[in-house]
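Q: I'm writing up a methods section and want to include an example of the input and output format. Could you take the sequence below and give the corresponding predicted structure tokens, formatted cleanly so I can copy it straight into the document?
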Amino acid sequence: MIFPVLTTLIWAGLSWYLGKKNRLDFTPSGLRVIASESAAAPFSGNNPVFFVWFLLFLILPLFWGLSFWLRSDLNVIVVIITLIWAYNWTKYVFEL
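A: Here is the clean output for your methods example:
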């Protein structure tokens, strides 16, 4: 149970850092702009921080779901929902 809480706190801290430091817009259209800028120059400025933030955002449902349903058959559903979540957000943000 500590890993979902820890990843959520790290994600929230990175959200606060990115929002305070750069005045970023965390709406879906704002994420698309940030992602396109980050993909153009991945190792400059806060772009590595954005990628860590985005990866944590994608795996949060996996951590929270598996922390509650690890010993049951619902863990398969959690993994499938997380894959759909990650695919749709990646497709939308990076315009694939």
